[in-house]
Amino acid sequence: MNSRSTELKLIEIIKKEVSSETPLTSVITDIGDDCVILRPTKEADLVVTKDCMVEGVHFDLSYTTPYFIGRKLATSNLSDIGAAGGRPLWALLGLGFRSDFSTAFYQSFFKGLLSSLKREGVGLVGGDTVSAKERLFFSLTLIGEVPKGKFLSRAKARPGDRIFVSGPLGDSQGGLFLLQNRIKPPIPRNPLKYLIKSHLDPSYPMGLGRRLLELDLASSSIDVSDGLSTDLWHICERSKVRCIIEESAIPISRPLRLLSKAAHVRPLDFAISGGEDFEIIWTTPPHKAQEVKKVASKLLKRPPYEIGYVEEGKGVFLKDSRGKLREIGRLGYEHR
Amino acid sequence: MNSRSTELKLIEIIKKEVSSETPLTSVITDIGDDCVILRPTKEADLVVTKDCMVEGVHFDLSYTTPYFIGRKLATSNLSDIGAAGGRPLWALLGLGFRSDFSTAFYQSFFKGLLSSLKREGVGLVGGDTVSAKERLFFSLTLIGEVPKGKFLSRAKARPGDRIFVSGPLGDSQGGLFLLQNRIKPPIPRNPLKYLIKSHLDPSYPMGLGRRLLELDLASSSIDVSDGLSTDLWHICERSKVRCIIEESAIPISRPLRLLSKAAHVRPLDFAISGGEDFEIIWTTPPHKAQEVKKVASKLLKRPPYEIGYVEEGKGVFLKDSRGKLREIGRLGYEHR
């Protein structure tokens, strides 16, 4: 196909896939226009995020599928809105296409993207479709709402606060390790599948940020997109505090332990600098620690992990079993 | 530079350039977070658009500069919001960078982008910066407001309405023709410069759409991004009408006439299928035609051009001096 006929085909696919969605009463004009008119709730602020994904940088077609690319594009944006305590509502997609890919490829991408957006009640309401020549790219803008004047920021962690994380860390990085190594370390099939899924189609704690915001149970929060050390570093920098993480408290899944052993990589290396886990890290004042555990447990259907505490100072520190501190700085996962 | 150090440099540039802007009271958190919190006006709907630009597809670095790329990226989005009658407020930028370009290149891009956004009071409030490897891309999302329940759509042109355009057509396409042809047709320096500027740094009728909406003077409107024939075709299709354009009434600038003569291309070919003029085409009921001319003249500081009328039917037609109709269909400018 040439790029014009690809573009027209893509617009057809979008119209078909999108019109099969429940119509959103808050969308006043449809996707065919250059602009979309949206009606926010009166007593709400907007929360907006934008994440891009580039072929060969954020994903590799030798080991992922268009369906999973669509899902992960949605997840990385939904996770940002979620960690801010927001409710996602509308998405706009910038799609840089390759003309040498089939219609089926893009249909599968849209099925993935829309399956994730739909689950959260988000409508794909607009965007732009352009030729990207030899390298696919996607740019998703997600618009949501937070109660007026309320949102979870990175800037309000206070000394004494406890640090929690919603789930195990490093699984996504472990999955990537498996996908990138042609010779798979000898681990059983199920853990292997679990880790690979953690990278290709990571889950995230849907609704947790909003619940923490509604009940005023978190002083700060962030999603783990760049890795525990980098993301906590953002909280430290913005809140002007330091974070102490108990090495032994960092949640590591059984599959990741198996992989670490087989591959001779310390599990902590995956967990500390691995990105794209899309769990939420948050801080809670000590007198609310019991309550936040109860609330998060109910929502997550398992307890959250308390991994450390906030102090006066600067930087992110790991505390080993003998109480020795080691600064871990900003070692997060970096896209090539 | 490698892509990580480029990314950090870029974030530095963004922070510096953006913080030198007037702070927006409607922005609650700053650009350092994954999300931005924005406060819309109570009695407004949102109007949102997104346009992407790709190196070698929408611009060519052999004849444009990063400054002009930034300006045009802003213009194409501002023009969409303007044609909908909206007031632009906030922008988010997806930047796909090349590591082999200098810091000065990106500084210049941001200067261009911000100069255009600033002029309209728009704040660059967020976005994402990623490696694009060998081909730059930009994805801008622009969010604005319209009065609740009111906006200029493409769907409400009615038989009998007059068709107006805010300025001459085809100049941008003429400029592109000059830029793409190594052997320049023999036309004087000033018309040549005018046409090249029309392509590299097109102007647009700032505020016109909003004025037409406020005074309820337009039944439909669209900006000329793809060319007169394609853009009018959108109005026809959405409004279920046909448009008759008087061939002799299509505004052609003197520089474009000079170029057409020297290059042996009919000026109408530039004007009808040339895109990126960013003028507004709109329709007005006949009893408001005099008033809309007055209002537009005042704002544009010259009269708008009345180029035709709306009838029952389908399609876009050109009417020659003998009254003969010719369907011109959807011949607009297409990016390669």
Automatic annotation (TrEMBL), chains A, B:
SUPFAM superfamilies recorded: PurM C-terminal domain-like (SSF56042), PurM N-terminal domain-like (SSF55326)
Protein name: Thiamine-monophosphate kinase
Residues reported in the UniProt entry to bind Mg(2+) 2: D51, D80
EC number(s) given by UniProt: 2.7.4.16
PurM-like N-terminal domain segment(s): 32-146
Pathway: Cofactor biosynthesis; thiamine diphosphate biosynthesis; thiamine diphosphate from thiamine phosphate: step 1/1
Binding site for Mg(2+) 5: D226
Further comment: Reaction mechanism of ThiL seems to utilize a direct, inline transfer of the gamma-phosphate of ATP to TMP rather than a phosphorylated enzyme intermediate.
Matching Pfam families: AIRS (PF00586), AIRS_C (PF02769)
The encoding gene: thiL
Residues bound to substrate: H58, E276, Y333
Keywords: ATP-binding, Kinase, Magnesium, Metal-binding, Nucleotide-binding, Thiamine biosynthesis, Transferase
Annotated binding of Mg(2+) 4, by residue: D34, T49, D80
Record function comment: Catalyzes the ATP-dependent phosphorylation of thiamine-monophosphate (TMP) to form thiamine-pyrophosphate (TPP), the active form of vitamin B1.
Catalytic activity: thiamine phosphate + ATP = thiamine diphosphate + ADP
Chain sites annotated for binding ATP: G127, D128, R154, S225
Family annotation (Gene3D superfamilies): PurM-like C-terminal domain (3.90.650.10), PurM-like, N-terminal domain (3.30.1330.10)
UniProt KW Transport keyword: no
Family per record: Belongs to the thiamine-monophosphate kinase family.
Positions contributing to Mg(2+) 3 binding: D34, D80, D223
Signal peptide positions (record): none
Residue intervals of the PurM-like C-terminal domain: 158-319
Gene Ontology molecular functions: ATP binding; magnesium ion binding; thiamine-phosphate kinase activity
Sites where the protein binds Mg(2+) 1: D51, D128
Origin species: Dissulfuribacter thermophilus
Superkingdom assignment: Bacteria
